[in-house]
Amino acid sequence: MSEGGFIVLRRLLVPIIVVVGLFTPTVAQAAPPYEHMHYSGTDSFTDTLCGLAITGTVEFSGVTTVRTVKGSDGQAFLAHNNYETVETITYAATGNKIVFTANGVFHEQRASHVSGTVWSFDFLDAGTFTITDLDGNRLLRDRGVIKIRQLFDTLGDSQPGGILISEELLALHGPHADESTFCNVVLDQLT
Hints:
Layout: H1 3-13, E1 30-49, E2 52-69, E3 77-91, E4 96-115, E5 118-132, E6 138-153, E7 163-173, H2 179-190
Antiparallel strand pairs: 1-2, 2-3, 3-4, 4-5, 5-6, 6-7
């Protein structure tokens, strides 16, 4: 996926994925669930998209499971999240709108202890991301798998979450629009 599409996908995931702590010195194995829940909600935001100041609303739902990693002394966690989102983007200067939908799975897979409270973990995000106009006409579809490695400080507080230190794209599979194509679709509909 292009940087533009990747940024949009990440923004879609923020309201629904609680970035949870991390993993063990070897390939991670999870214990019984720390937390399992169905969730749904709405949110609104302002942002910049392809150079435009936009506002948006998002509706999201899904099921998430968080597990404590065996051998981590309760300092590392793995998440698995099936999610759906519908995001309506508005460009205030014209009042024009587009809709982003996403349906996918976020799965933390591998982890290793780096030092102290710092852990490295690999996750994948697989699914479909679609841009439509308000009539439901498909303008762009992006689908496949993104694999990312993140370095996190878990803060040593025995709670999911922490501070992101760095991030590395490991793999990108499936048809993904480049930034130019993505922004051309967005700008054509909003301006």
